Amino acid sequence: MAAAKIKKGDSVVVRSGKDKGRTGTVVQVMPKDGKVVVEGINVMTRHRKPSQTNPQGGIDRLPAPMAISKVGLADPKDGKATRVRFETKDGKKVRVAVKSGETIDG
Predict the structure, then answer these.
(1) From its phi and psi, is residue 103 left (phi > 0), alpha (psi between -120 and 50) or beta?
(2) Is the pTM of this model over 0.85?
(3) CA-to-CA separations, 36 to 4, 30, 32, 46, 57, in angstroms, rounded
(4) SS3 53
(5) What does the UniProt function comment say about this protein (predicted)?
(6) What distance in Å separates the CA atoms of residue 29 and residue 99, rounded to the nearest whole number?
């Protein structure tokens, strides 16, 4: 299995779809499904009937998973989407932004 290029807590930019251009933080990564959940992006609404556990009912808004290919890591320098490559620095494997050459972690 390849190393994860996008991890939980990363700032990402949406590259396509209804939320194109918006940025958010990764809440969850699902590598087996190839999906990510980004805070405040791809929000779905669920209408709930009143029940004993939820007597008020109402509308729940939750971020839904989206394809990992639709998001790109935000470049640390300018905040635009960039691809990621891996390099070894001081004997440690680190992620590097292709666009600017900035180290993302490490």
Answers:
(1) beta
(2) no
(3) 12, 6, 11, 20, 28
(4) coil
(5) One of the proteins that surrounds the polypeptide exit tunnel on the outside of the subunit.
(6) 23
Q: Domain tally for the chain?
A: 1
Owning domain of residue 100:
10-104
Question: Does residue 105 carry a pLDDT above 80?
Answer: no
Instruction: Output the pLDDT for position 104.
Output: 86
3-state SS class at 68: helix
Is 5 contained in some domain? no
Token couple for 6 = 């996008």
**Which domain CATH number covers 49?**
2.30.30.30
Look up residue 3 and give its DSSP letter: P
